[in-house]
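Two proteins were folded this term; both appear here.
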Amino acid sequence: MKNAGIKELLKNTIKADKIVNGYIFSGSGNTKNYEYAKEFSKMILCLEPEEGSCGKCKSCIMFEDDNNPDYFEINKEQTDSIKIDEIREMQEKIIEKPIISKKKVYVINNAEKMTIEAQNCLLKTLEEPPEFITIILVSNNENTILATIKSRCTKIAFTEETQKAITEENKERFEVLEKVFGNVEKYLSIDLLNKIDVLYKDKENIFESLDYINTVLIERAKKDTKYLDYIDYVEETKNKLKSNSNYDMSIDNLILKIWE
């Protein structure tokens, strides 16, 4: 999916009031994931969002002037590390309620530069965040981010073309997942189970499959906001599997929740 498509997804997230507490905007090279994080932040804080941010309200004007009290940012150069003291400083502000908007947004750019101590400190906030908080981690190398943090965030991958990342070895599996999860309304529950037996058989690659399913759902969510709920169900399933929940029951539950 092209990055422009992600912008439509983010707009629909605002419209459907499906903003979550944690995001990871992942990418590499010139994907501009930081710029999208800033724009999404502005949309979240906007007092009159329709097609994105209005650009006219008090929140938008102050955001453009880098003076919005409901927005906080840690923006490190690639050569610097993000230390625990910086996360603690952020946490002191997190507990304070918004001043202008209904929400507060915290962006951590180059999040892969967080030390392990800083990440563990951030994890405490992600485990029990105030309902008005959204934290966006921007990273060009999410492999250095703790799995416990990633499991508590919705991942949005910024790439030029999703299909470019598909190898011939995965092509058949991904084509099945795209066909089914791109058109779930066409299937009864038993049909879904029959169509995606690959999820039950290929346990070794389940997280890769679930990530791809969400890529498909994100594309559909641009036009139909109900797919935002499906994305949440997939993220819940990933968390259950990472917590060593029963594998088949976790997949069964995912299918039943989507079918319902």
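Next, the second protein.
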Amino acid sequence: MKKISEKAMFAVFLISALASVCAVLLICVFLFANGIPAMHKVGLFKFLLGKNWSPTDIPPEYGILPMILGSIYVTAGAIIIGVPIGLLTAVFMARYCPKQLYRVLSPASELLAGIPSIVYGFFGMVVIAPVVKQLFGGKGAFSMLTASILLGIMILPTIISVSEVALRSVPENYFEGALALGATKERSIFSVVLPAAKSGVLAGVILGIGRAIGETMAVIMVCGNQPRMPAGILKGVRTMTANIVTEMGYAQDLHREVLIATGVVLFVFILLINLLFSAVVSRGGKK
């Protein structure tokens, strides 16, 4: 009887694991089967490096370079804003935060993860955009900078939660040994504990980058949604996700296929980020 139950549970776990793998494979098949032919019709380099996006022109132009750069710049801005704040917050919560304050701060950071994207978008429109406009003399309300600030806020809960768990998982004798050798508390944390938690911290950063580059609704509401080459942090841009959502509702034939091909490019971006993360972690493990 025991062997039968063990085999049954093994089968359940195996089916669950295979279901996840199959879901990823089906997504890949759908994207590449519909996107690759569109790239071939338009021309790979013309599609990836073209600067004009004009589906209604005759002949239409499908260059997504402005959207690729828009996604990269907005995500980079979110990383610059969100990663230092998230990491320092995680350090504070793991090593400095009093218990009474932690009882408030921890649920508050978790609550950030549960707020819908559309609510973040409204917050960006009503609060962040006017502040940016006021600071820069009436310019940049709906711009790359506003989108970066908003995304920087949105990735905070992911970075904070994962980094805090990584920091708490470091054996306490690492910290105590550094203190015994004469290091200050701050130096012990940033020179010993934080490097020991590097894999977990990087995982949080990668998840945050994935959230930032894949975000749609909030970005559409504050980035200006202009399909042109980025011209500065106070100018409007359009990201790849925003381009897909904006035009998929009425797109037909080649136009629709090209939007799916844009999804392929986005998928490849996420894949490369994860491969880079795996390479960094494996290299750190060998050291």
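The first helix runs from residue 2 to 42. The beta strands are 53-54, 61-62. These notes refer to the second protein only.
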